[in-house]
Amino acid sequence: MNRSINSKSNTTKVKLISVGTLVAVLIAISPYVFYLYESLPLDNTWNTPFFDFKTDYFATIYMMAWVFMNKFVPFYLLILWFLTCRHWWYHIILIPISMFMFQMVVTINDEARYVDEFEIYYIIPVMMVVIPIVYLIRAKIFDKIVHGIDLKEIEKELKEYEEKGID
Predict the structure, then answer these.
(1) What are the entry keywords (predicted)?
(2) Which residues contact 95 (CB under 8 A, 6 or more apart)?
(3) pLDDT digit string (tens) for 61-77?
(4) Is 85 exposed, middle or buried (0-12, 13-18, 19+ CB in 10 A)?
(5) Among residues 118, 42, 107, 114, which one has the least CA distance to residue 75?
(6) How many domains does the chain have?
(7) What range does the domain containing 89 cover?
């Protein structure tokens, strides 16, 4: 019996170490990911055997990739933080994630005339969903820790009163 428990805990430890190592490697290579733009051409057209890419808004593909990487690397680091964060407020990280996501889309979209100017207005719906959720989580934790109020106990007590017929 103990042997199966130990093997489960060892398996869990190995998984945790593996995931931690992967996250550490992804964070460590982020500067290299950023500098990938340096391998792109100093022209406004990029021809490959798989596709052709042309930018009209930016002077060169190189410049567009530099702007894109300035959005992508923080986005990818925030995604890692969101996936590995164990704090109660981790949902709030979705707000800057959505901002960087909108900025990346606008960077790639050549039809956009203004880059990095109106993305805040696209984030408002995300904020309208995330902020109340985080506030409710905070209120529940605050009530439980500071006031000692547990909503499940209150619901249980109300159910007992209903069963007894007491209003």
Answers:
(1) Membrane, Transmembrane, Transmembrane helix
(2) 123, 126, 127, 130, 131
(3) 999 999 999 999 999 99
(4) middle
(5) 107
(6) 1
(7) 35-164
Q: What is the CA radius of gyration of the chain?
A: 24
Of the candidates 119, 115, 117, 118, the residue with the CA atom closest to the CA atom of residue 107: 115
User: What number of other Cβ atoms are within 10 A of residue 43's Cβ?
Assistant: 13
Whole-angstrom distance, CA of residue 37 vs CA of residue 64 = 9
> How distant, in Å, are the alpha carbons of 7, 121, 129, 167 from that of 124?
48, 5, 9, 43
Q: Output phi, psi for 47, to 5 deg.
A: -105, 125
Coil/strand/helix, residue 33: helix
Contact 125, 132 (CB under 8 A): no
pLDDT tens across 100-137, in order?
998 898 888 866 666 666 677 878 888 888 889 888 88
For residue 92, count other CB atoms closer than 10 A to its CB: 20
Name the token pair of 83. Answer: 């996936």
Residue 53 forms beta bridges with which residues? 46
